[in-house]
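I am writing to request your help with a piece of structural work I have in hand. I am sending you one protein, given as its amino acid sequence and as whole-number tokens for its backbone shapes. Kindly check, if you would, that the fold set down in the tokens agrees with what the sequence suggests. You will find the record immediately after this paragraph:
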Amino acid sequence: MTDGDQQPGEAAADREPAVDGEPTVVDGPAIGRAQVGRQEQEAGHGQIAEREQPQPAPPPARRRRWSLWAAIAVVVMVLTCALPSVLLVGLVGDAAGRPATGDDAATAAARRLGVRMTGQLDRQAAALLGGDRDGFLAIAEPGARADLTRRYAALRALRVTVWRPAADGVPRAVAGRPGEWQLAVKVGYCFVVPACTPASAVIGTRWRDAGEQPRLLAVEESGSAPAGARPWEVSDLAVAFGKRTVVATTPALRAKLPGLLAQAEAAAKVADLYVVGAPPDRYLVFYAGRGEWRRWYGGGRPRWTAGYAVGVGGGHHDVVLNAEILSPTGVDDLLRHELTHAASLPDRGYSGRATWWLVEGLAEYAGADGQPVGRYDGLPEVRKLVRGGWNGRLDGLAPADDAADDRVGGSYGVGYLAVRHLVDRYGEQRVLDFFRAVVHDGRSVEEASDQVFGEQWSTLHDDCVGYVRAVAG
């Protein structure tokens, strides 16, 4: 499900299984330029990633479906990403095509320094993809190596296959620290699949000018708005792999991985039925403990959120589950819902709150997995909403961030029933065509309804609302 206002670049759209064995803890996830060795690529599905042992650093919820009617959020991001202002302000210069005099001469020198920095980053990328930990750390000063060691282990654990760092602007001198420079770096990355369209993150870096080979002093958490820090940047991770999914969590929750992976694989089979556009090469799921929920991807979700899907570029949507809220019986529905978001949403997200009912209704429909309408867990909340003065408009369903639990549940339930009615009348494929026209192509519901269903939307809207009221009783 999705929290609040779903606009491009803004925040939009648990399980406790029995576990055999214990996954090994690994540090962080990754970003891309080449292929990892075949030994990692050919590791069997359903396996838990082994930790690469660190070497000494080189010197110098279900009350119904979810426990709080914890709804699900879709975070939609536009990857013209933002870093903390201390890193980005003034980084980008524009001296191309002008004589190198005065300030332009300084800009040209900064550009040359940037080329040397990216050369170092290219060497680091090759070391990462080649499994050379010492080489990965070699460009950095000692103070940066602890963080880089964790990132390296996480990236390798997630089977990074592509890591493409590139300067996002021109290096900028650090005020009051002679010889130190800041550089924003945009990294394209893939996991598991070598030929994927890369996701991306913008990361702040700080360097010391040391001639031909600048030295990396620090790496900041990415500020890619609104996604925030990726789990692989800030946490130790244990990772499990399946045919269609990758599931990662923290060391404290690693015993959950085998069960979570099995559930994710089952949910992926359902989500694959609702692909709009290119299918995901893998669904990436992060299971967040309390602290991680508040930190991963910027935190700050509405209190009723049990999970969300966040766009990270390249057509990819990472899925995050809130371990603290979810009950053991709620995860299957939640995973089907969230993976359907990942399968159906466009990379750029969708605009406005008016189509919230359609985005969440489709995900709820997939989450219900064909069960009879009478068994849908949200019917009590739907009845309360319908009988409590709902104005009968689908385009006004999106709940506020501080909405009461029953208001949230009722909104998702009405969206589900509206989509269910359209599917019963026209079939799943035509509903997906309608979804594509509205959510992907940006057409009005009136235009899409006329084109796909051959009916005026005002008539269909009233039919959907009538169906909702009839089911609610």
The radius of gyration is 24 Å. Residues 272 and 445 are 25 Å apart (CA to CA). Confidence is low (pLDDT under 50) at residues 1-45, 50-73, 75-101. The first strand starts at residue 26 and ends at 27.
